[in-house]
Amino acid sequence: MKVVHVITGLHVGGAESMLLKLLETMDRARFEPVVVSLMRGGENRPRVEAAGIPVHDLGLQAGLPGPGAVLELRRLARRLRPDVVQGWMYHGNLAASLLGFFAPGGTATIWNVRHSVADLGREKRGTRLAIRAGAVMSGRPRKIIYNSRQSLEQHGGLGFRRDKGLMIPNGFDLDRFRPSPAAREKLRDELDLPRDTRLVGVAARRHPMKGHEEFLQAAGRMASGDANLHFLLVGRGVTADDPVLRDLAGQPALEGRVHLLGQRADMPDFLAALDLLCLPSLYGEGFPNVIGEAMACGV
């Protein structure tokens, strides 16, 4: 059975990581996976291709697919002839429906929503448009998979077909994410900190919804009452090159105690080294992978 996964991009993120987990563990005797990425590149692309899974990209910059992308989806549909098309996130879901529509034969299309929408007005314009288009087109997919009950209920309220909804929670690799005293020592040594330093961490890409500023404001208040606390922030774009983060990290109470570490490839060890994980997101989370991963590490 050929399964074509359609996703916005292959950068590091929750949906992208879950797709990668699925691709690396699919029964290849039963399934032939293919990935269609709306955008080029991404840190996860080499891992997908290393698993022997072909990747086709449409070369989009952002936004909804234009005429050229629609023609490319039509060409791919006829070339790949999928049995199942699986969309990932709003733009990927819409593109998956187009690909499934163009595919010859009986192609089943399935959507995958991994986002909560407490306030539609807080979403970017392109995301709002994609959500509204998804509500209109939500009768087309065979099923709409959500990774949290809240997300399922919220999207039903936004006009997504409730009878199509199916909740499947995230899964976690307990061989990779587990408690590790060695990882605790290793990260403190890397940062040149005493072994008894207590570490509070945030793992999220740089985005207004992720609440980095609010976290650092709270960290400033926490730091004044405990000299043994240090604060670690990891994720794409979370570096001292960001002037807002740099200024907040430089406040007197936090001087020398905030570590802006950027994107890391050793997340199992990073999470296992923490004493506390904080998820300061303001909105938009469905079922964050990092919550289950940290819990698996005993954090």
Describe the structure.
With about 300 residues, the chain is α/β, with parallel strands linked by helices. It is built from 11 helices and 11 strands. The chain has helices at about 15-25, 45-50, 65-80, 90-100, 125-135, 150-155, 180-190, 210-225, 245-250, 265-270, 290-295, and strands spanning about 1-5, 30-35, 55, 85-90, 110-115, 145, 165, 200-205, 230-235, 260, 275. The strands form 2 sheets. It has a 7-stranded parallel sheet, with helices on both faces. The chain has a 4-stranded parallel sheet with strand order 10-9-8-11. α6 (about 150-155) links the parallel β6 and β7. α3 crosses α4, α4 (about 90-100) crosses α5 (about 125-135) and α8 runs parallel beside α9. The longest helix is centred in the first third of the chain and has 14 residues, at about 65-80. It is globular. The mean pLDDT is about 95.
Write out key terms for the chains shown.
299 residues, alpha/beta, seven-stranded parallel β-sheet, four-stranded parallel β-sheet
What's a quick, concise take on this entry?
The chain is α/β, with parallel strands linked by helices and 299 residues long.
